[in-house]
Amino acid sequence: MADLEQKRRAVEPYLKFLRRLDDDVDLDTRVGHVLDEYSGDDVAGLAATLEDVGVTAGFSVPAVHLEERDDIRAAVGDLAEAGHEVLLHGYRHTSYLDVPYETALEELSRASEILTAVTGREPTGFHVPYGAASEGTLEAASELGVEWIVGSGPDTVDGAASELTQLQPSRPYDLQLLERGVDPVAAFEQLSENAEADSVFLCHPNVHFRPGASEAFVDWLAEERPASPAAVAANPETGPGLLLDCFPPFRVA
């Protein structure tokens, strides 16, 4: 039952979001967001691109992908070895908006243990799925060594001021622009125009294939040269940061 509840918390918020889309939005990019798998070779190719342009990024990885796929586990381990940050993103991509402390601690502990085993280091960043966390979730994350999050949550935890730094993604992000038919080059230019120094670029390379945005993304990286999210959390003047979310938001099977 706990597993089914996690899956519900993954699928339900996504379906609610889809209901809010305008009728004229082409859903092909959203279909890709759910179905297009990013392979270990894709991750390795992206890592090579980042090395070529001299960019260190953060990667959001639901731990279930590391548990189920040897190619992803190996590729993510290589990312960490190359200096990229692997962020806690839950065991599955589940909503933490109304989750109590006990549930959050159990799920995030499991995810953190898997990430630590794969990368050799405990995650200090947490990309909150769907962007909003409960007080209990932030309390659990802080207890597990998280120092900063990408997303939002209460300013106080258990009656005291939260010590977690909260970074916000610049909106609209690439997925939202591309699904509305914005030309890829213009979409990435708009990302730069909308970003604040203390924000992060939230990009989804697994959806760049369908609208033909991969080349524009690489050119934009070379021009923009964003910082890492951890660097922005430590010093907002160094941003914007780059956070890459390459994996489907939930498993269909």
Description:
The protein is α/β, with parallel strands linked by helices and 253 residues long. The chain has one domain: Glycoside hydrolase/deacetylase (TIM Barrel, Alpha-Beta Barrel). 47% of the residues lie in helices and 16% in strands. The protein contains 11 helices and 9 strands. The strands form 2 sheets. A 7-stranded parallel β-sheet has the order 2-1-9-8-7-4-3. Strands 5-6 form a two-stranded antiparallel ribbon. Strand 5 (156-157) and strand 6 form a beta hairpin. Helix 3 runs parallel beside helix 5 (70-81), helix 6 packs parallel to helix 7 and helix 9 (184-194) packs parallel to helix 10 (214-224). It is globular and about 45 Å long. The protein starts with a helix and ends in an 8-residue tail after the last strand. The mean pLDDT is 92.
Key descriptive features of the protein:
253 residues; globular; alpha/beta; TIM Barrel; 11 helices; 7-stranded parallel β-sheet; two-stranded antiparallel ribbon
Shape: globular
Number of strands: 9
Backbone structural class: alpha/beta
Q: Which range does the strand content fall in?
A: 15-25%
Number of helical regions? 11
Largest sheet: 7 strands, parallel
Q: What is the helical fraction, as a range of percent?
A: 40-55%
Q: Any idea how many domains?
A: 1
Concise structural overview:
This protein is of the alpha/beta class. The protein has helices spanning 2-19, 28-35, 40-53, 63-68, 70-81, 101-119, 135-143, 174-178, 184-194, 214-224, 229-234, and strands spanning 58-61, 85-88, 125-132, 148-152, 156-157, 160-161, 165-169, 199-203, 241-245.
